[in-house]
Write a structure and sequence with these properties.
Helix content of chain B: under 10%
Largest sheet of chain A: 6 strands, mixed
Number of strands of chain B: 11
Shape of chain A: globular
Largest interface: A-B, 27 and 30 residues
Distance between the termini of chain A: 41 Å
Number of helices of chain B: 0
Number of strands of chain A: 11
Number of helices of chain A: 0
Strand content of chain B: over 45%
Structural class of chain B: mainly beta
Distance between the termini of chain B: 36 Å
CATH topology of chain A: Immunoglobulin-like
CATH topology of chain B: Immunoglobulin-like
CATH superfamily of chain A: Immunoglobulins
Oligomer: heterodimer
Largest sheet of chain B: 7 strands, mixed
CATH architecture of chain A: Sandwich
CATH class of chain A: Mainly Beta
Strand content of chain A: over 45%
CATH superfamily of chain B: Immunoglobulins
Radius of gyration of chain B: 13 Å
Order of helices and strands of chain B: EEEEEEEEEEE
Radius of gyration of chain A: 13 Å
Helix content of chain A: under 10%
Chain lengths: ~110, ~110
């Protein structure tokens, strides 16, 4: 079954500390992988996607096919990074279908 | 460009009633997907519309149905509402069906069933 696991419901760090939000997926194919973010009172928006290998707002995500993980990292957290983060593989095939994890709330304390 | 727009913002219904939610995709997008987000959970895929046809469906009963119009806008219909249907319903649009296409989300419709 296609499944996404984000083991931490809440991650609390101090400003300037490194951040790693964990994501593990189970899918037999090779999904395209995304991280979506939802800031307070804003809509869900794309943070980054694996295929573009870009860094957005200082965040990067490395795909580890052996561990089927796609953890999101940032070396120095900022208060404005406080938000809900969702890992979402896009199931390939004839149609695109995002499978979301339960999400991790990142709280960056001053 | 206003992006994806959904209406109404909030809706209150009673058990057994029927509801229709609406979505206009981002300009240039032709594919619409619907998601249900229960409180404290991630969004769950309901179905996707492309070229006015339902292309893929998640694990939702037939009470959930939809439609896509020639202008790419879409409706989600839910019949015989249950208390468990209370959730935020999100619409997402993208260009072209299939993988590797980022989906852009609307603000959602908050549906409450009494």
């Amino acid at each position: 079954a296609q499944r996404v696991t984000q083991p931490e419901k809440l991650l609390s760090v101090f400003k300037g500390a490194p951040v790693e939000l964990k994501c593990n997926y189970s899918y037999s194919g090779s999904p395209e992988l995304f991280w979506y973010v939802q800031y307070s009172r804003q809509r869900l928006q794309l943070l980054l996607r694996h295929i573009s290998r870009e860094s957005i707002k200082g965040f990067t995500a490395d795909l580890n096919k052996g561990e089927t993980s796609f953890h999101l990292k940032k070396p120095f957290a900022q208060e404005e990074d406080s938000a809900m983060y969702y890992c979402a593989p896009l199931v390939c095939g004839n149609t695109g279908k995002l499978i979301f994890g339960q999400g991790t709330t990142l709280q960056v304390k001053p | 460009d206003a992006g994806v727009t959904q209406s109404p913002t909030h809706l209150i219904k009673t058990r057994g009633q029927q509801v229709t939610l609406r979505c206009s995709p981002k300009s240039g997008h032709d594919t619409v997907s619907w998601y249900q987000q229960a409180l404290g959970q991630g969004p769950q895929f309901i179905f996707q519309y492309y070229e006015e046809e339902e292309r893929q469906r998640g694990n939702f009963p037939d009470r959930f149905s939809g439609h896509q119009f020639p202008n790419y806008s879409s409706e989600l219909n839910v019949n015989a509402l249950l208390l468990g249907d209370s959730a935020l319903y999100l619409c997402a649009s993208s260009f072209g069906q299939g993988a590797n296409q980022p989906q852009h989300f609307g603000d959602g419709t908050r549906l409450s069933i009494l």
